[in-house]
Amino acid sequence: MALENSSLNVWPEIEKAEKENRRELVLQGSTIDKKIQSDGGIHPRLYSLALLNYLEISQCPSLHEINENIRHLSHLQSLILCRNKLTSVPQSIGDLKAIKVLDLSVNQLQALPEEICALSELNTLNVSCNSITALPDGLSRCVKLASINVSKNAVSRLPEDLWSSSLELLSSIIASENAIEELSSEVHKLTALKVLDLSSNKLQELPSELADCPKLKEIHFKGNKLKDKRLEKMVNGCQTKSVLDYLRAGGRGKGKGKGKQQDGEVNEKVDSGRNVSKKKSAAKQKGKKEAGEVDELNQMVVRVLHVSEAPTAVTVKVSPGAKDVRPYIVCCIVKGMNLRQGNALKRFLAAQTKLHDEICAKRTTATIATHDLSLLKAPLLYDVRPPDTLKIVPLGRKEIKAAELLRHLQQEADEQRKQKKRQNVSGLHKYLQLLDGKNLYPCLVDAEDHVISFPPITNSDRTKIKKTTRELFLEVTSSTSLQICKDVMDALIIKMAELNKLTFDHKEDVGSDEETDTISGHPVEDLTSPELTILQVKVMDVEGNLKVVYPSKTDLMSDISNLTVIR
């Protein structure tokens, strides 16, 4: 048997993880795929690495199944099995009781085992881009589930218990591009639901109860042929607030909940319907006026400046080698961000960390980097370099080669585990496994050949932002897709607008940094507006052909009611 013979030649990646008692292991790409082909699957020694809490096996078209022995990896918290050709998932996956993140996206699965419902710690489930026809019943047992993505499958209905009140943390359901015919009226039981995407399905109606979801901020129903054509026009225009208001009012005069006939009192209201209607109309107009005044006070403004309108525009060129390492990058410049007052800088850095953990899935899908524009020497080059050639001045450290930096970080991680007597590590140490198996590392380099960014690990101390930073250069990179880069950048800019508005409204005291600013010849100006200006940045190939410009007309298309984007 191939697997028996392969036991004589343990994969070096597995052997290294075994010897060093590694907690993280990434097996991906063509090198691993060839080993899977020759051995007839994953080397069985993998399943003896009982200390693993992060395992990724991805981009291996020869991987069709995972052995039942995966049950022995009982400490796994993240299992990433994306972009393979898996046709099934073993039932023993239900034994991985510590699993928090399960990513089975971009495979050939037609069904999921019911045992997945036994994963009581599961927080994130991604099974997008498969051929799944139905989700298993019993997901309500995954009481810590916060995000589920089942987009681009063949699902015709979502299980009834997905709308259970026991899923009190479920905030995101992405189920676009399926064949779903009905959205349950029980959806209002999901009190934490913020994002619901059922675009490109077979829905004909939307339940009025959708408007009762207290935290719902973002809905997508575009591409469904709804019976109510006015509602269909609204959803195709992605007007979240308008759709919810319309449903709350009961659609075209249908009424909802409180508007239905109840007891004898309603008949009296029907008899005097016109008078009631006039009163409601007047009250509605008054409410609109008050809401308008409140909205104006809370309004956030983002102004987009076209690249042609900037005489000193920054450009980024991408070297051909980046295509095989980390191909996607999106950049822009932000002006008007006030980091000087009070805790504004701390709040911004904390928000960036939160985005890394959430929308960037702990930097596995994308990485954010922020720089002080005044410290950059343009033009910039997005390049790839060998670990022993790439040099960077990491945040808070001296200049070092990438290979040596990773060795130091690994030693620090091991020491951290010993001292704290636990498996998890913090800081940059959490992301070391993301570069496993790569012969070249991605980097953003300025005109003086200084590496200013080494994703997904760290930025350069040379260009780090401070309280005195006036203009920021933002960068998002990904190995997954260009759209993810844009989505992350959208989220970052919206968060910056919120934070800037908060700083402006509270007029926090400026600390000792104000004095430092004045001494350096740059007095702190009294900003009269929280408005942000976003300057486009072009990303091109080395021959000058445009790859992407951000933000384009289709970017920053948020449904946030108090955000105005001026183009």
In short:
The protein has 567 residues and is of the alpha/beta class.
Question: Which key phrases capture this entry?
Answer:
9-stranded parallel sheet, Leucine-rich repeat, LRR (right-handed beta-alpha superhelix), 24% helix, 3 domains, 11 helices, 12-stranded mixed sheet, 567 residues
Can you describe this structure?
Helices cover 24% and strands 18% of the residues. It contains eleven helices and 23 strands. It has three domains: 1-132, Ribonuclease Inhibitor (Leucine-rich repeat, LRR (right-handed beta-alpha superhelix), Alpha-Beta Horseshoe); 153-251, Ribonuclease Inhibitor (Leucine-rich repeat, LRR (right-handed beta-alpha superhelix), Alpha-Beta Horseshoe), CATH 3.80.10.10; 300-388 and 439-566, 3-Layer(bba) Sandwich (Phenylalanyl-tRNA Synthetase, Chain B, domain 3). The strands form three sheets. Strands 10, 11, 12, 13, 14, 17, 18, 19, 20, 21, 22 and 23 form a twelve-stranded mixed beta sheet that branches. The protein has a nine-stranded parallel beta sheet with strand order 1-2-3-4-5-6-7-8-9. A two-stranded antiparallel sheet has the order 15-16. With 567 residues, the chain is of the alpha/beta class. Helix 8 (344-357) packs antiparallel against helix 10. The model is unreliable at 1-7, 253-274, 288-297 and 509-526 (pLDDT under 50).
